[in-house]
Design brief:
By secondary structure, the protein is an all-alpha fold. The chain has 18 helices and no strands. This is Sel1 repeat family protein.
């Protein structure tokens, strides 16, 4: 639901009442959807789509693909709307249609058809289409297997900010697959992806900081990234965190408790006066989960989270 709402908000911000090509019917559909009138929105989108509005065709594809907001999911209908938008050059529709062919969702499974639509989308600069072309070359699906071609496509997507492509390109440089072996370059791409929250990149970059591969060894940064990846459920990161040991975990829990009290148990004047001593955002992000757990555990135990038991007698 949230992803589709972002699509609607983006379309609305770009086109609502601004371009003649976007009919009043489509504008009405956007307004109805944002007001929670989903049945009315779909009716308006259908009418606009039948009038040839390509954005309405794409939006209907997303609606039936995901079954948004209680609306019925229908993969076959979704594929039909994606096809209509894709044939008129809509790059996101082309990528989504390619994926449906790749997994056989609403259409017969076909690697060749998947590649066909990923290619036309990628040629228009869609970074998801470019990334998927990289995947197809990596796996030799619908195209001859070629790590070199895969790297070319991953790079095109990565340069546009696609986190999955950035992480994949980091893997390729780390292992010298399709590109020259370079830990330094791998670290650069992992960092780009890690900054966007990619768990694989966070873990791989953490290992590089821990071992000093391609970067200066830094155990603090390594621990930070291990935690970030572990909190997203990355199995290897969780295992690595387990190796830190009980003493280190206790230290993290104590720090989390202190941060929680710092943020929640002081009056506004104190926080304003001492704001410079509060940890920077990068460090705060490390311990957010432990801070939430500290608060929940204290409340469940009937204790005041603002009381530091080590200082309370």
């Amino acid at each position: 639901m949230h992803h589709f709402r972002k699509i609607i908000l983006l379309i609305g911000a770009l086109f609502f009442g601004s371009l003649p090509a976007f009919s009043q019917t489509f504008d009405a559909g956007i307004e109805a959807y944002l007001n929670g009138n989903y049945a009315t929105a779909v009716e308006s989108f259908n009418l606009a789509a039948e009038q040839g509005n390509v954005e309405a065709q794409y939006v209907l594809g997303v609606i039936y693909d995901n079954g948004e907001d209680g609306l019925p999911q229908d993969n076959h209908v979704a594929a039909q709307w994606y096809l209509r938008a894709a044939e008129r050059g809509h790059p996101e529709a082309q990528t989504r249609l390619g994926y449906m062919y790749l997994v056989g969702k609403g259409v017969p499974q076909s690697d060749l058809e998947a590649v066909r639509w990923f290619q036309v989308s990628a040629a228009q600069g869609d970074n998801s289409g470019q990334y998927n072309m990289g995947v197809m070359y990596t796996n030799g699906a619908g195209v001859p297997q070629s790590d070199r071609e895969a790297a070319i496509w991953y790079r095109r997507a990565a340069e546009q900010g696609n986190a999955s492509a950035q992480s994949q390109l980091g893997d390729m440089y780390s292992e010298g697959i399709g590109v020259p072996l370079s830990d330094e370059t791998a670290a650069i791409w992992y960092r780009h992806a890690a900054d966007q929250g990619d768990a694989n990149a966070q873990y791989k970059l953490a290992v590089m900081y821990d071992e000093g591969w391609g970067v200066n060894r830094d155990s603090v940064k390594a621990s930070s990234l291990f935690v970030d990846a572990a909190l997203q459920g990355h199995r290897e990161a969780r295992e690595r965190m387990g190796q830190i040991g009980k003493e280190a975990l206790n230290h993290l829990e104590q720090e989390a408790a202190e941060l929680w009290r710092f943020a929640n148990c002081r009056n506004a004047d104190d926080q304003m006066n001492d704001n410079s001593s509060y940890p920077p955002p990068s460090e705060r992000g490390l311990l957010q989960q432990l801070m939430r757990e500290y608060e929940q555990q204290a409340i469940q135990a009937g204790k005041d989270p603002c009381v530091d038991e080590r200082m309370a007698g």
